[in-house]
Every structure is written in C-alpha cells, then in structure tokens.
Specification:
This protein is mainly alpha-helical. It has seven helices and four strands; from the N terminus they run E-E-H-H-H-E-E-H-H-H-H. A hairpin with a 5-residue loop joins strand 3 and strand 4. Helix 1 packs across helix 4. The radius of gyration is 20 Å and the shape is elongated. It starts with 5 loop residues before the first strand and ends with a helix.
C-alpha cells in the first residue's frame, strides 16, 4: 500500500481519489469544474474542497486521455464536461476493484483504533465490518445472515 490516496487499475497508472470522485460525479450528469467544487464542498460539509489549481489540471488531463469531453461551453466560457465511453468504463473498472479501497479504509480504521483506543469504536465501523463480511459470505450462508440481521434490526428498533 504505497500511496493511500492513489488507486490503480494497472501497474504504473495510478489515479488519485479526486480523479475517481470526478469520474463518479460526472457519471450522474455533465458538470463544470465549479459544479464539481460545489458538490464536493456539499458532500464533505465544507471540510474538504480541492482548490481550482488542483481540479482544473485534472480535468484537462482527463480530457486529453479521452475519459471526459467538452459537452458545451456556456455563458462566460463556462465549460461543461461529460464522461466518454472510456470514462464510463474506467469508473466501472474501479468499482470492480473495490477490494483496493476496502484495504485502504481498513488501514485507516486500524490506525484510528490504535491511536484513539477500542473504546472509541463507532457504530459506523461495526456496520461497515458487518457489510464487508456479509458481502463475502458464500451464497449458501447469505440467507442465514439475512435472518440474523433482520432479528437484530428488530431488537434495535425496540431500544
């Protein structure tokens, strides 16, 4: 795990987290750089907003690689980008390699527990672990897991 903020589909072709966020966002609808900045700010409650000097070179690079293309240039030269077929394939390929991001997330979780202690484990971590293990169960055991989780869910609702 050389770089925690980089993801790779093939050796030597790393993509940063921001690139993946851009491709994911544009999969929903075409966007301008400003739209992307605004969306990231909203999703992170303003705790992380990449600067323009980081975002716009990535957009140009993605365009040069053929992953996005200019859909239209609007008022005041506002450039709206959209995913190309190659961009759609790339984001799908990243989703198909989700183990890579799960490994990174688990690393951060372990470091958090080591630094702040097990007593500070959050319900979110527990739910993430349940999801991870449930997704990797053999098909013949998934029904039993659903029954167990439904039972626990009913008990939690009664709390």
């Amino acid at each position: 795990m050389n770089n925690l903020w980089k993801f790779s589909l093939e050796p030597g072709k790393d993509r940063g987290l921001l690139t993946i966020i851009i491709l994911h966002s544009m999969e929903k609808e075409p966007k301008s750089g400003y739209d992307l900045l605004k969306e990231i700010a909203e999703k992170t409650n303003g705790t992380w907003v990449p600067n323009k000097g980081t975002l716009y070179p990535i957009l140009k690079s993605l365009e040069k690689e053929g992953l996005i293309q200019v859909k239209e240039v609007g008022k005041r030269s506002k450039t709206i980008y959209e995913l190309t077929e190659s961009g759609e394939k790339t984001i799908t390929d990243f989703r198909n390699k989700k183990e890579q991001s799960e490994d990174k997330l688990n690393f951060f979780k372990k470091m958090h527990l080591e630094i702040f202690g097990e007593e500070n484990i959050s319900l979110i971590y527990l739910l993430m672990d349940i999801r991870f293990y449930a997704e990797h169960l053999p098909d013949e055991k998934k029904q039993k897991a659903i029954e167990l989780l439904n039972g626990v869910f009913e008990e939690i609702k009664e709390l």
